[in-house]
Design a protein that fits this description.
Layout lengths: L3 E4 L7 H9 L3 E8 L7 H14 E6 L17 H15 L6 E4 L5 E6 L36 H4 L16 H7 L2 H5 L6 E4 L13 H13 L25 H10 L1 E6 L6 E5 L2 E5 L5 H5 L6 H4 L3 E4 L3
Parallel strand pairs: 1-2, 2-3, 5-6, 6-7, 7-9
Antiparallel strand pairs: 1-10, 4-5, 8-9
Helix pairs in contact: 2-3
């Protein structure tokens, strides 16, 4: 019987983050959700997931954007081929990438359902984008290449097959279509879904509670209360261009999800909107975690318990 923990954006290409993963205590009866962005290097990804699989009863994983970068050591000709290669590696080490049922401490069951996703941009998919023109006051509204967004350089995509109408699907729609069977499956217990990308625009902005949680995290870490707001920390560009897609929210609600775990934004959230609890529990890069911006990491000493409390 298990509890369900969650984390994302481990980025173990940073040695400090790999040391963090290695230092996590074993929880051999529990289940861990890893919502993407572990590493773009497949051997490093497999090593990290293998360490986690040795600590937890089950590990569920969905790739993020970093996993789909094509680097010099990759044999895959494009990012979609690499995606399926990663799934095969996960299968080989016993990491789950398909929906599965978990028996919890109280004897009840819960389904864990991974959802493939990509972000919808304002130019390629205006219907489904989370884009906010101008963003926050401190954001610069630049194109992906102008803001040095690595996906624009390292992701490589095949020519997409045109629909009968003659149009090509956006990448967000292409990834969403991979979830079709998962949307129609008969789930006989409550459902926890997870994706890498952000499912709703409200989740990009920090609430008063989020700012409070950062201050509490810093207090636990022995740091003074911040003299800055979350939106003032780090890179200044319009993140909403690459945040996620509202297709995700439609899909998780069609499934009937009670909790949705996501990552990507390196800003942590635990918020209920229209009866769905949204949890982002990113480790982020060493500067972010050491400053308490990814709040909850110190509080929980690692992954966050999201379901199956004793």
């Amino acid at each position: 019987m298990s509890r369900v923990f969650a984390i994302s954006d481990l980025h173990t290409d940073y040695e400090a983050n790999m040391e963090f993963v290695e230092s996590l205590p074993p929880r051999p009866e529990d289940v861990l959700i890893v919502a993407g962005d572990v590493s773009d290097d497949i051997p490093r990804l497999v090593e990290t997931l293998s360490i986690l699989k040795a600590k937890y009863k089950e590990v569920y994983f969905i790739p993020g954007n970093h996993e789909l970068w094509i680097n010099k050591t990759d044999l895959a000709p494009n990012s979609l081929v690499k995606l399926f290669e990663i799934v095969r590696h996960c299968n080989a080490i016993g990491v789950q990438t398909e929906p599965g049922k978990v028996r919890c401490l109280d004897g009840s069951d819960v389904w864990i359902v991974p959802l493939y996703s990509w972000y919808a941009g304002p130019d390629d998919d205006p219907k489904n984008t989370l884009y906010v023109p101008g963003g926050l006051t401190s954001w610069k509204d630049l194109t992906l290449k102008e803001m040095g967004w690595s996906d624009a350089y390292f992701c490589k995509w095949p020519t997409l097959k045109r629909r009968a109408s003659g149009s090509c699907p956006s990448l967000a729609q292409l990834f969403a279509d991979m979830n079709t069977e998962r949307l129609t499956k008969d789930y006989d217990a409550p459902v926890i879904t997870f994706s890498h990308f952000v499912p709703r625009p409200e989740l990009m902005r920090a609430s008063v509670q989020d700012e409070t949680e950062i201050a509490l995290e810093r207090n636990i870490m022995g740091l003074p209360s911040p003299d800055w707001k979350e939106k003032e920390f780090g890179t200044r560009f319009n993140f909403s261009r690459v945040a996620g897609s509202n297709i995700l929210d439609r899909q998780l609600r069609k499934i009937g999800s009670m909790i949705h775990v996501y990552g990507h934004q390196h800003r942590n959230r635990d918020r209920t909107i229209r009866r769905v609890r949204y949890v982002s529990h990113c480790l982020g890069n060493p500067r972010e975690s050491s400053e308490g911006i990814t709040w909850g990491i110190a509080t929980w000493a690692g992954p966050k318990l999201i379901h199956g409390h004793s």
